[in-house]
Design a protein that fits this description.
With about 300 residues, the protein is an alpha+beta fold. Helix content is about 55%, strand content about 10%. The chain folds into 2 domains: about 160 residues, Beta-Lactamase, CATH 3.30.450; about 120 residues, Arc Repressor Mutant, subunit A.
Amino acid sequence: MESVFIPVPRQITHDRDYFIELWQAVEQQYALYITIHDHTGSLLLSDGRMLRPQGNIHRCDFCTYNREYHGNQCVDHCRWQIAAEAARSGKPFISRCHAGAMELVLPLRRRGKHLATIFAGTFRDPELKLPAACPKKFCQLYNALPVWRPNNVALYLRELEMLGAALLALAENERFSSGNALRGRKAVIEEFFRCNLSTPDLGLKNLADKLELSQSRTSHILRQEFNQSFSELLNKVRIERVCQLLSSTEMTLGKIAQLCGFSNEYYLSRVFRRATGMTPGSYRNAARQAETVEKEDIKNI
């Protein structure tokens, strides 16, 4: 029998809606909220935006309520304590936050490098007895959470691993196929900076070792491909990441400095102002105002 080939319409992989639909499909199928903290910018699109707006924020009603009253504790727990444990262990684990909520945490890694942290939840512990002094609203929201069921862990992990791999591949494909795509050795250099910008003492030798070249040859390649020195290119990548974090997160400047490889927030402020002509605070306010205007414009369409 002769084979018959019927073309099948295919979703364009650089359509922003496609990323969101994929993410939402897993959430809806398993009644989960999935949050992803991208530590290296590996899941950013070519225009510097995140795959999913607000995808780095825990969106369930219980977490939203707790952020209003315990914002610092929530951020410290998820953004720093959990991220540090994910980077240290490299393996999935169960997390219980200060408010008693439980989540499944999966480090997203590639070639031994911790790129991002995926959270799935949020669940309540059926054996946890809330203190009598807890506010009524807190108790209501906590009791409304789905019950944590250990038997579902294997299923959730399989789906999260596939989702993480798919999002990483799709983001890389979008960046590669865009007009600003970097190829060959230039792409390796770009990935090196993106994945290592949080290292305070990152130097030319580190990149030379990565490329298996001498430092002088590496410096020549940087000038040839980027028309910049190592320090100039590193500073550019760090400032771009700072801008992304200022516009899309509520992180303090101190935390952003730590994540982007600056010694402290004061040094970051000086470097940022020289590079952009604005203070970090002014940049964040301008980004928020622009986002508000964009949302209003969409409503009026």
